[in-house]
Design a protein that fits this description.
The protein is α+β, with helices and mostly antiparallel strands. About 25% of the residues lie in helices and about 30% in strands. It contains three helices and eight strands, in the order αββββββββαα. The strands form two sheets. It has a five-stranded antiparallel sheet with strand order 1-2-3-6-5, with no helix packed on it. The chain has a three-stranded antiparallel sheet with strand order 4-7-8, with no helix packed on it. Strand 5 and strand 6 form a beta hairpin.
Length: about 210
């Protein structure tokens, strides 16, 4: 590989490593929010945590609305409504949730539409935000749709019944009571076996 003037191989590799790290960081920042543009309104969508909501846990979703020129649209200027559908979605399906919108401050945005959502189970959902100007003319009506994948939550710890737990000590079979007659019988057999081996060795003819 040709090196730039004044650069050693080590410096070149270090520069490439730094550049690749910046690309990864910038790429993550770019996908951290979902931006959609309508006729004269743009919406930046984000849902906690980092677009990976968990089933059964309350999560915050917010929508930063801006009109042409970059002027923000606060919730009190927008007649907005949010609906949540389960996937696969078909036109005409009923929403499974219709969260109330609240004025939310986040990442430099103030009083933007936000909602606290608890997804019932893991899977794919569709969030649909529709709105129009309360004064009837500041901006055109809009509808934005966002796909959300909900991951499984942490299952609650199940109570443990102390009676159902079997002690490891109890699982070890107790030693049987020693029977004196059995011990005597085993001892006698051992003696006879040893005596037989000794006799066989003594009677073995010498070569």
């Amino acid at each position: 590989m040709a090196l730039l003037p004044g650069f050693t191989r080590r410096n070149t590799l270090a520069s490439l490593w730094l550049a690749s790290g910046l690309v990864i960081v910038l790429g993550q920042a770019a996908i951290a929010h979902n931006v959609q543009v309508g006729q004269d309104v743009a919406a930046t969508f984000h849902i906690e945590p980092n677009h990976n909501p968990k089933a059964g846990s309350e999560t915050l979703a917010w929508f930063a609305l801006t009109r042409a020129g970059g002027q923000q649209i606060p919730l009190h200027d927008c007649a907005c409504e949010l609906r949540v559908f389960s996937e696969p979605f078909q036109p005409g399906d009923f929403a499974i949730l219709e969260p109330s919108l609240i004025a939310t401050d986040s990442e430099g945005y103030e009083a933007i539409p936000g909602a606290k959502i608890t997804f019932p189970k893991p899977g794919r959902y569709r969030l649909e935000l529709a709105g129009k100007a309360k004064d009837g003319f500041s901006f055109r009506p809009f509808t934005f749709s966002y796909a959300v994948t909900v991951i499984g939550g942490t299952p609650a710890a199940m109570p443990v019944d102390a009676k159902s737990i079997t002690s490891p000590v109890a699982q070890i079979p107790e030693a049987a009571d020693n029977d004196p007659n059995q011990e005597s019988l085993l001892f006698g057999i051992s003696v006879l076996f040893g005596f037989g081996i000794a006799s066989a060795l003594m009677l073995k003819p010498r070569q």
